[in-house]
Amino acid sequence: MSKKIINTSEAPQPIGAYNQSVLKNGFLYTSGQIAINPKTGETEFGDLIHETKLVMSHLSEILKKANMTFENVIKVSIYVKDITKFSEINSVYSTYFNEETAPAREMVQVADLPKYANIEISLIAAE
To answer: Which PANTHER family match (predicted)?
Structure first.
């Protein structure tokens, strides 16, 4: 089975040699999403709760384009500049998942992120 590229105009367009997501053998792999307004192409950084909501909405739109929901998600990777903001991020993140069926996840503090974002999230989902 060949890979299928899945992009949506409801999430930021790729700014390099990558796509928003790739579907292969029933698994959807998303690229990392940051807080870019897909309508304006402008970054919306500063308020971590707003950034997290915007990133999760991008992922939601990508999942929708692939005919999936957050229930299909099996793994999430979260990269943050400040791990002490865990509770702020988790307060938004946890609204997208049922605790009993939530995916595996890691949250890692990094030195920097693309365009100086405060958070970047990617995920893997299965049909």
So the answer is: 2-IMINOBUTANOATE/2-IMINOPROPANOATE DEAMINASE RIDA (PTHR11803), 2-IMINOBUTANOATE_2-IMINOPROPANOATE DEAMINASE (PTHR11803:SF39)
Those residues whose C-beta lies under 8 Å from the C-beta of residue 110, and which sit 6 or more positions away, are 79, 80, 81
pLDDT score of 16 more than 90: no
Nearest to 12 by CA among 37, 46, 48: 37
Domain segments of the chain as ranges: 4-126
Q: 């030195």: which residue's tokens?
A: 111
CB 123 within 8 A of CB 103: yes
Q: Is the pLDDT of residue 15 over 90?
A: no
Q: Which helix (H) or strand (E) holds 51?
A: helix 48-65
Instruction: State pTM to two decimals.
Output: 0.96
At 1 the pLDDT is: 66
4-126 is a CATH 3.30.1330.40 domain = yes
